[in-house]
Hints:
The complex is a heterodimer. By secondary structure, chain A is of the alpha+beta class. Chain A folds into 2 domains: 2-52 and 236-380, no CATH class; 89-205, Barwin-like endoglucanases.
Amino acid sequence: xxxxxxxxxxxxxxxxxxxxxxxxxxxxxxxxxxxxxxxxxxxxxxxxxxxxxxxxxxxxxxxxxxxxxxxxxxxxxxxxxxxxxxxxxxxxxxxxxxxxxxxxxxxxxxxxxxxxxxxxxxxxxxxxxxxxxxxxxxxxxxxxxxxxxxxxxxxxxxxxxxxxxxxxxxxxxxxxxxxxxxxxxxxxxxxxxxxxxxxxxxxxxxxxxxxxxxxxxxxxxxxxxxxxxxxxxxxxxxxxxxxxxxxxxxxxxxxxxxxxxxxxxxxxxxxxxxxxxxxxxxxxxxxxxxxxxxxxxxxxxxxxxxxxxxxxxxxxxxxxxxxxxxxxxxxxxxxxxxxxxxxxxxxxxxxxxxxxxxxxxxxxxxxxxxxxxxxxxxxxxxxx
Amino acid sequence: xxxxxxxxxxxxxxxxxxxxxxxxxxxxxxxxxxxxxxxxxxxxxxxxxxxxxxxxxxxxxxxxxxxxxxxxxxxxxxxxxxxxxxxxxxxxxxxxxxxxxxxxxxxxxxxxxxxxxxxxxxxxxxxxxxxxxxxxxxxxxxxxxxxxxxxxxxxxxxxxxxxxxxxxxxxxxxxxxxxxxxxxxxxxxxxxxxxxxxxxxxxxxxxxxxxxxxxxxxxxxxxxxxxxxxxxxxx
Lengths: 384, 235
Ligand SMILES: Nc1ncnc2c1ncn2[C@@H]1O[C@H](COP(=O)(O)OP(=O)(O)OP(=O)(O)O)[C@@H](O)[C@H]1O
Ligand SMILES: [Mg+2]
């Protein structure tokens, strides 16, 4: 083993430029693979953080009759929160319709306390506003209804008796978030206002917990904590990981192809050398071992090279983040302006192991061909 | 017969050529004694290389038996034939076949790496071998920095460093000028005398033939003539 390692190392160094080209390609593959995965992890992490900050808080207390996946339950899924309850921010959700530019757009009306701080929704804009019915919407909503800050739009809703009523609302703020769940098809109103216009005084559909909330079982309400709510997102992330692992494998395949190619080529180009090794008394197994080790040494050299420029790069990008083009926000995926790649030890170690092991395998396969070589033909350099 | 080191009995070698077969060696019977300095001579295609490869256990006969140091080359496993070459047979090729990434020293040392020697032992043996061929000064040079004659001398040192019983040289002077050919033949003859190694050549070269003590003429894969020559200097 030691001899094979020494010889393999010498052969690689001796091959000069050819070796370094391969090492460069491989190390590049290493770095891209790790970078790409780090980016995905960073993106997922950000999606989680954002969802918590904009939507989940520390969990939701829900009216028993309300099912977030069934809009028909909105009709009855609300009630008065017990007076004793603390550390939650109630939200009343009702259905409504707006008529921007004469179009009819169904919306969810979400009443939220103007003083809340548990979600990022910029509710202080309500306080600053003097409009009769101030409303806050997200970017997606603004775009789909073509609304700007200062615009007035007609809103129609039903009160608690089912009677239709209508009034103009004023857009006082438009926020920018990656979380579609608080944006698309939704209009945020001050809770007090929503109570007044619907007559559902002191009622709420859900209540968002802050960090001091303690879950005590309440009649008519159930609590879903943050971890449970994130499960959904975690599942989406898992799905995304599957598709990104296809990319991972693709990159890996390219890197391995480079090694495979070199190995196949070198076996033909170096027939004479192989014949000489055999004439000098090397066993076929020794020659196979030598070529296999040569191939896997590429991945080790590439790893070292990749570390030299990859590590500082990742540290830098982890700090400054990577700017995402504005256009990608329109693709319907939640993309932040900046993503901070997360490159963990686990990712690096897995990648290195994976590449090294597969590099060894793809070097072994062509090397095995050597064991079937006729040394006489190899010495003549006549093998096809 | 007591010192017979190579014993070829009814050796026939056929190659597949397209659908048919081509008989490269036809019923060869030859013996070589320890310390012989012999050459195969014959026109191109007469089977010289094929026969040397069988003796060197790089190839095996289609029929017959080739006993090299008492071992039937056709019956050896890969490992055993590798061992035979490793410890007992040295090769010299027409085109030297030096390993380009190794220095002269390392090329010679390579043969020893496959055996068990300490670094100090190897050093001593390599320097001695380089001394035989007068190349101790070039130890650190790479093969592409030395001349053809020097390259073939390195190949001799590499083949001889392990002190094999048999040295096989397939047209060793074909790429050399007359002066270098004589230098190399003289070196090999000296080593043959000093170490009692059996040398087997194949050659077209008159210069080589004049050093031979035995010449086996091959034609169309058969032995045409086998003659013992008394060297001039011994007359
Ligand atoms: N692997 C092979 N397949 C088919 N034919 C072969 C093979 N090796 C050798 N031969 C044929 O066997 C014959 C003997 O070849 P060999 O190389 O032994 O000749 P040689 O005497 O060494 O010739 P040269 O002086 O040109 O080196 C030739 O006709 C050659 O074409
Ligand atoms: Mg020949």
